[in-house]
Amino acid sequence: MKVLGLTGSIGMGKSTTAEMFEALGVPVHSADATVHRLYAGRAASLVEARFPGTVRDGVVDRAALGARVLGDAEALAALEAIVHPLVREEERAFLDAAHAAGAPLAVLDIPLLYETSGEGRVDAVLVVTAPPDIQRARVLARPGMTAERFEKILASQMPDTDKRRRADFVIDTGEGLEAARGAVRRIVEGFGALPKT
């Protein structure tokens, strides 16, 4: 089984691209979705112990936590030390299950793949990108997002140009859904992982 890492900066279209792989029968593990689950489960008490007041009714309040860690490298590192090992555990269980099911290809959707040296855990990397104006419009359309928060998030991520230079595959999601779907299909086909019709 081959493992493809899917990454890209905020607002570049990772989630939509991940859905395109799933539509072709490729199992996808989303690090973001896993963190959401963990924040409502076994990570909540650990986060509360390190960042008191960031958990409400047993669930991590992402806005409150973000306010505490964004722009604070030490706090962010402390949070990552709690969350990353739990995400890796779930990732390994996902890959074991995909392998046992005979999947020829599995996708790991990891937003900070390069920033966390995740390329060593995958066979190839796909970076999704989009022009800066499209990226900005997408992100600022999100509930509760501000221009200041967007800039802080961008500053914490590797520049898009660097990600694209290091990637094995690049999809520009700014070219529209059909173009992206076609690119995903070609990648899956290249791995010999298209479902038999």
From TrEMBL:
The keyword Kinase applies. One of its GO terms (biological process) is coenzyme A biosynthetic process. GO terms for cellular component: cytoplasm. Catalyzes the phosphorylation of the 3'-hydroxyl group of dephosphocoenzyme A to form coenzyme A. Belongs to the CoaE family. Its EC number is 2.7.1.24. The gene is coaE. This is Dephospho-CoA kinase.
